[in-house]
Design brief:
Elements: H1 3-7, E1 21-28, H2 43-53, E2 59-68, H3 73-90, E3 94-103, H4 105-110, E4 115-118, E5 123-125, H5 137-143, H6 167-192, E6 207-209, H7 210-216, E7 221-222, H8 225-233, E8 238-242, H9 249-253, H10 260-282
Parallel strand pairs: 1-2, 1-8, 2-3, 3-4, 3-5, 4-7
Antiparallel strand pairs: 5-6
Length: 286
């Protein structure tokens, strides 16, 4: 007799196969070291959640929900590397689902997945490196303010916004950007391989809608997380969110070890970082 039919007669009811489980990890926001108040995407804040995403015993897959305009190249690489290390160790497939945008570092994170899906209206790409700043030399002249800088090392004060830009400083910066750009391109080529349909246009920093990204091979399909995972694992698939730690209100308002002056300085820095992140989102009309 079939053991399943036999078990169906037992008091605890019919035999049921365990439902496939998919851990869902949201990667939402700018990527960077983070400040006192902002919950930026970085390896420090995500190491625990990434680890927990791969812990369930009956794990069928890990899903990354990506909604990021980018940010730090180093943090993007560290997060993606940790995801791949655990995926390879546990032999678990990883799927990425783009919401509004996966651009620059956000696309770097999406490439940690084995397959990438986006909405038709998602923004995908921006495979490039950017540096932006301001120059206040003329303003200081008008205000009659003298800038005084003393360094040990001829390149220690490069690109000081209160000094005139020097060609040799720009050359150094462009060299660093070229190195980072090559690292980014190599990662995309390694992860996407023969699926990429575009040429050099992919690496100009341009970005596209999800539909065009599919044509270029930057994503594998169009769709959203629930529909795609049900089609892959069945209607009864369980999607289990992996939550990031939340800090209490007291720690949010006065982190341990900071006096009032340090807290004020931290708050100003936080406002600046939020402004920078706001600029990242605004590049994509968001």
């Amino acid at each position: 007799m079939d053991p399943r039919k036999l078990l169906s007669w037992l008091p605890f009811g019919r035999f049921r196969e365990p439902r496939p489980l998919v851990s869902v990890l949201r990667l939402d926001g700018g990527i960077g070291p983070g400040g006192t108040l902002r919950r930026a995407l970085n390896i420090k804040s995500l190491a625990g959640p990434i680890e927990r995403a791969f812990q369930p015993r009956r794990l069928a897959a890990v899903a990354l929900v990506v909604n990021s305009p980018g940010g730090s190249a180093a943090q993007s690489a560290l997060i993606a590397r940790r995801i791949r290390q655990l995926a390879d160790e546990k032999q678990v497939p990883v799927f990425a689902f783009v919401e509004d945008v996966a651009a620059s570092g956000g696309y770097w994170l999406a490439c940690a997945a084995d397959e990438i899906y986006a909405d038709e209206a998602s923004i995908v790409g921006s495979i490039g490196v950017i540096y932006a700043g301001f120059g206040f030399v003329e303003l200081l002249d008008k205000l009659g303010v003298e800038r005084r800088v003393h360094t040990a090392g001829t390149r220690k004060a490069i690109l000081d916004p209160f000094q005139r830009e020097k060609p040799e400083d720009v050359e150094l910066l462009l060299g660093m950007q070229a190195d980072l750009h090559e690292t980014f391109k190599d990662y995309v080529r390694t992860r996407r391989g023969a699926r990429l349909k575009g040429g050099d246009e992919l690496y100009t920093g341009a970005f596209w809608t999800g539909r065009r990204a599919l044509e270029l091979g930057l994503v594998d399909g169009l769709g959203e997380i629930r529909g795609q995972l049900r089609a892959r694992f069945g209607e009864k698939v369980e999607l289990r969110p992996v939550l990031r730690e939340r800090r209490g209100l007291g720690r949010l308002l006065r982190p341990a070890g900071l006096d009032s002056e340090e807290l004020a300085a931290s708050f100003v820095a936080e406002l600046a970082s939020q402004g920078e992140e706001r600029l990242l989102w605004s590049r994509f009309g968001l």
